[in-house]
Amino acid sequence: MSKNPAIKKTANRSNLSSADKTLAAAIRKLKKMPTGYVYDALRMLGIGTVTDGVLPAGRKSSFVGPAVTLRWAPKRNAGIAPLNIYEFIRTCKSGQVLMMETGRADGWIMGENMSHHSMYQGLSAMVTDSKVRDFAEIAELKFPVFSTGPAIRRAEVELVGLNVPISCGGAQVVPGDIVIGDADGIAVVPAARIADVVYQAEAIGKVEAAQEKAIRDGVPMAKLKAIMAKKKVQHK
């Protein structure tokens, strides 16, 4: 077998299914878009969801990838998860986004070590609707970590679900959903509708560009309002 990594990479791409290729192409397009375009597209289509109050801990904030999920619940020493979080991360694939539900626990469930562990595993990002410790160290990582802020006290929770539907920061997340994040927050796209969302988001991007130009050129208000109205209707 050839040891040429370029040949191996090409071979891997050729083995992808049509659905996988479509998904990969959509993710590449999403990486060039702000979450605002995706949010507008989701609202227009009446699907998907976004987080509230879950924001990047550091300067590295942009990411896109399929979700893997963990559910935490108030501690009663009856956790049912067969793996701890470090073991679970080892099972994740490169490019995935780890989304964690804690019920907005008022304390940390992760810190710098777990962030590094995820980064070295090749994950695209980690997201929790709880707080994190080692906030200053995490802020310096070249790896997106989203949380509700810093904390010194540990959250009294235990791991009760692996790769199950969750609610993270108010967003419903199903394993395999496509998650896109940046400095504004996080949008969650049902994988089955990814092509529709990308199509509408690209159209919205064109409207945004036209709106910016119209504002710069000082066009009459009627014309500006007509451009803005195009953001509220589905594009064919």
Folded structure, characterized:
The chain is an alpha/beta fold. It has a domain at 49-189: Glucose Oxidase, domain 1, CATH 3.50.30.40. It is built from 8 helices and 13 strands. The chain has helices spanning 5-14, 18-30, 35-45, 85-90, 112-121, 135-139, 194-217, 221-229, and strands spanning 49-50, 55-56, 63-74, 97-101, 108-110, 125-128, 131-132, 145-147, 157-162, 166-168, 171-173, 178-182, 185-189. The strands form 3 sheets. Strands 1, 2, 3, 4, 6, 8, 9, 12 and 13 form a 9-stranded mixed beta sheet that branches. Strands 5-7 form a two-stranded parallel sheet. Strand 3 (63-74), helix 4 (85-90) and strand 4 (97-101) form a beta-alpha-beta unit. Helix 3 packs across helix 7 (194-217) and helix 7 (194-217) runs antiparallel to helix 8 (221-229). The longest helix is centred in the C-terminal third of the chain and has 24 residues, at 194-217. The protein is globular. The N and C termini lie far apart (47 Å).
Using brief descriptors, characterize the structure shown.
about 240 residues; Glucose Oxidase, domain 1; two-stranded parallel ribbon; about 25% strand
CATH class of the domain at 49-189: Alpha Beta
Named CATH architecture of the domain at 49-189: 3-Layer(bba) Sandwich
CATH superfamily of the domain at 49-189: Ribonuclease E inhibitor RraA/RraA-like
Could you name the CATH topology of the domain at 49-189? Glucose Oxidase, domain 1
Bulk shape: globular
Flag low-confidence runs: 5-11
- How many helices? 8
Largest sheet: 9 strands, mixed
Report mean pLDDT, rounded to a whole number: 91
Strand coverage percent: 15-25%
SSE string:
HHHEEEHEEHEEHEEEEEEHH
